[in-house]
Amino acid sequence: MSKLAFVFPGQGAQYIGMGREFYEKEETAKAVIDKAGMITGLNLPALCFEENDRLSVTEYTQIAMVTVEVAILKVLEEQGVRPDVTAGLSLGEYGAIVAAGAMRPEDAFAIVRRRGVYMQEAVPEGGAMSAVLGVESSVIEEVCGRTKGLVTIANYNCPGQIVITGEEEAVQRAGDALKEMGAKRIIPLKVSGPFHSQLLTGAGERLRKDLDKVQFMEFTIPYVANLTADYVTDARNIRELLEKQISSPVKWQQSVERMLGDGVDTFVEIGPGKTLSGFVKKIDRKATVLSIDKYEDLSKAMEALKNA
């Protein structure tokens, strides 16, 4: 039997104008975005829709992304679409937990706002990230392990694409070594910090104090966590997973493989860009992948789901 997954993208997919048409044409989406603005004290329509320099700054990017994702999610739910499982890449895990029914949108907005601030404040001098193309993960793990300085894997995105993170010089050294070992490309990423490295452990510890005040609910739909690439069956475990996620590798490829192994054959990416759609296709070309980013994508996705 066919199974459906909702997946939510992470930081880096944001762009000026994201969510604008949903805000203007769907009362449900407008209410979500306005509520997030009220909770965080930010003018989210201005942040998301108008030209500005803040949208690419971590403390603003994160709340903007999750707000737009939840706004689109609520429009889909209103139309009666329910997934069998959810997952999100890094920041997108918050959208997945909301979709799974374990976290209220209001709590997600408040926590993500603090998460962005904590991560921004925790960014050390001299951190970096690079995408490594065309090398097996086992080789990258081995090279990172013997490289002088702190460098580890940040993201297992899909076959042939892994991101490394850590101290700038260590990331550079590991990249040079991987090039010599046959990497197709090493691409330094334009990011504001060494995300998903041990250098961000303090941000996770600060966030945990806020997470401890959140009341998580039992799941209405299963979700797959970044940290374990496995289903979370007890809502009480969410706090630890979200704390450690900030400084641990994101097992996205493994998460998708887990869902595929359980019969998921259709993935709907909810939110800005088509990053996850590309990753899923590289993991399994036979999977059906839909993306709801622009407002026009909504009717196309609904039609495709109806005919699936």
What is the averaged pLDDT score? Answer: 95
Strands of the biggest beta sheet: in what spatial order? 7-2-1-8-9
Distance between the termini: 11 Å
Strand portion, in percent? 15-25%
Q: What is the tally of beta strands?
A: 9
Structure characterization notes:
The mean pLDDT is 95. A hairpin with a 2-residue loop joins strand 4 and strand 5. 47% of the residues lie in helices and 16% in strands. The chain folds into two domains: 230 residues, Malonyl-Coenzyme A Acyl Carrier Protein, domain 2 (3-Layer(aba) Sandwich); 62 residues, Alpha-Beta Plaits. The strands form two sheets. It has a five-stranded parallel beta sheet, with helices on both faces. It is globular. By secondary structure, the chain is α/β, with parallel strands linked by helices. Helix 2 runs antiparallel to helix 4.
